Amino acid sequence: MRSRDRQRYSRQILVRVLGEEGQQRLLDSSAVIAGCGGLGTFVADALCRAGVGRLVLIDRDYVEFSNLQRQCLYRESDAEEGLPKAVAAARRLAEVNSDIQIQAEVADLTADNIGRLLGGAGVVLDGTDNFETRYLINDFCVKNGIPWVYGGAVATYGTVMTVLPGETACLKCVYPAAPPNGNVTCETVGILNTVPAVVAALQASEAIKILAGKREAVSRRITSVDVWTGLVRQVKQPGPDPECAACGRREFVHLDAPRRAPVTLCGRNAVQIHETPRQLDLEETARRLQPLGQVRVNPYVLRFSIPPYEITLFPDGRAIIKGTMDTGLARSLYARYIGM
């Protein structure tokens, strides 16, 4: 270990359960953070400062002012510029720790790209806001033996569960189908800004144990926390269920899912379109759209406003159509202004 590293991580190395050997393992490790919202930004910040050698940040969205209340890596200027979250987060983390590798992926995590984005990870951390993506992560990680840490946070409470394939129950074991309140999100019921910090701290701690080679210390419990009442509830996490589609029968249906149809973004009054991935020249598209409405563009995203709608377009052809929950109308707007 370099003297520079010993100095930077000196207080962490002093922790008996980690030590210099554990710190070196962190420096040699990699983690993938899926989703750079309230949970993902706190987790990324913690792992960056802890010295995890390579971080991959995945997010499909861009920074908005409503994010600043709880998403710790973003600034007002990021929202004004409409920067993709993964890009803005990577920039901030590079200022915190220039010795590690940080890879920003502005992408919607799908069955088509999950192998490229999650392959080779030492651990995957869940910062997503929907069970569709979590089931996808679960299938990939269980199939490939990669530990991952589920996290959820909304209103005043949150939940954490670490999945060790072959050792503990996976997400499908616990939730064979998405729970009835699975669509409850920060956008629909709100969130107290301390909740992601608590949940993400538990997630990051689990990841550090795994990456430092302290697997025996990983919690085999499902932990729920309510920061308003102060109640912490833990239940023992069972082992893999032999009847589980993923753990038991090895049926990874989410990895075989067809390309995503347009999806409504819960609580956002918006629809995501990503039916035909293709590379777009944002500058050229901006010039074409300029006479038709207000256009803002940077190297990562184009925002086109034609009230009451706003189209946010990414270089891979993906778009978020704000102002409607009607997928048919969203596709029509995309076809009219962007082209199918």
Supply the key terms.
Rossmann fold, 13 helices, eight-stranded mixed beta sheet, 340 residues, alpha/beta, globular, six-stranded antiparallel beta sheet, TATA-Binding Protein, 34% helix
Brief account:
The protein is of the alpha/beta class and about 350 residues long. The chain has helices spanning about 5-10, 10-15, 20-25, 40-50, 75-80, 85-95, 115-120, 130-145, 170-175, 185-190, 195-210, 280-290, 325-335, and strands spanning about 30-35, 55-60, 100-105, 125, 150-155, 155-165, 220-225, 230-235, 265, 270-275, 295, 300-305, 310-315, 320. The strands form 2 sheets. The protein has an 8-stranded mixed sheet with strand order 3-2-1-4-5-6-7-8, with helices on both faces. Strands 9-10-14-13-12-11 form a 6-stranded antiparallel sheet, covered by helices on one side.
